[in-house]
Write a structure and sequence with these properties.
binds flavin mononucleotide; alpha+beta; Nitroreductase domain-containing protein; NADH Oxidase; 297 residues; Nitroreductase-like; two-stranded antiparallel sheet; flavoprotein; 2 domains; four-stranded antiparallel beta sheet
Length: 297
Amino acid sequence: MNVISLTVWTLENNCFIIYTAMTVCFIAFTMFHKNRMEAHYRRVAAKKKFAPTGAGRERDYPNDEDDPDVLVPAIPEDTPHIPYESFKRSDEEVLKRSREYYELMAKRRTVRRFSTEPIPQEVLDNIVKTAGTSPSGAHTEPWTFVVVQDQETKTAIRNIVEEEEELNYSKRMSRQWVTDLKPFATKPTKPYLTDAPALILVFRQTHSWRQDGRKKMHYYSEISVAIAAGILLAAIQYCGLVALTSTPLNCNSRLRDLLSRPGNERLELLFPVGRPHSEATVPDIQRKPLEEIMVRV
Ligand SMILES: Cc1cc2nc3c(=O)[nH]c(=O)nc-3n(C[C@H](O)[C@H](O)[C@H](O)COP(=O)(O)O)c2cc1C
């Protein structure tokens, strides 16, 4: 019997065992390879998630591997929990207040022409204090509100914003963007930056530092600052003043330097605040009706 005949004879007589062994080997190899691939993808995902994503951006989540032995909460773990003081209001009262508040907020408009009439310091303090009541990721309060009333500083801010806006409108923004802005009659020149009695610049702290010198992570800092800005706008409306919501494009580093803000802060919003000019106008735009913005489930 030669080698070939022997092989054929062996395969024929032991085919069940041979096929079973091959199947087991195939399954074992597949499982082994799958686990290796999964571990590889996990490592790549973790690197992406925790890697610094460029200048001025923080990691939104902590990397426990940074310091696995010193996992101490940023605020004391034994912070007491106290009873919540609620407003005891009837359904009628709640309904009435919801209507009244809607009516008040529905009148809020972005105003682009301001009166130079000053506003009391305490009003500004209270508006900013109200914004500071905003919720924030893990109570990190990642905001700084710079309130500028000094005329020279307002002029310096205006010069920077106007310089950058010239470039934004002519080179940086898409043609479609510039076209979409036409109904609002926005221009690179911004007299409201020197007319409004106060400018509130909202800076987002990408991270901060604990008392022990360790870095304090700021989770969801972008959305936290956006909520605080919304509360600021509501407070401005409630007290009877007006604001212009603006996001000065490409002005972050120049305004940060001008206002001596640290490198962990990014300018997100600039709100001129005050009273409207007696001849101020607003575009006659409509808001989406409830049926278009709300889905009841
Ligand atoms: C994130 C954001 C950025 C904005 N940036 C500017 C801006 O740079 N300049 C401006 O004149 N208005 C700006 N606006 C105002 C919008 O144009 C305005 O809110 C919108 O037209 C709706 O009008 P209303 O605020 O009167 O309801 C901005 C609004 C938001 C929410």
